[in-house]
Amino acid sequence: PEVVEYDPEPERTLRKRLKAIRLARAAMGDEGQPPRSTMGD
Question: How far is CA 22 from the centre of its chain?
């Protein structure tokens, strides 16, 4: 309950971040590239 009061929708925030990162990756053209390239390997 405490956590819910602190952040009523933590999952939504996380999903928003992940979606933004995914969109940024797609915009940069990392769609067909492996995740390692994105990590700067």
Answer: 6
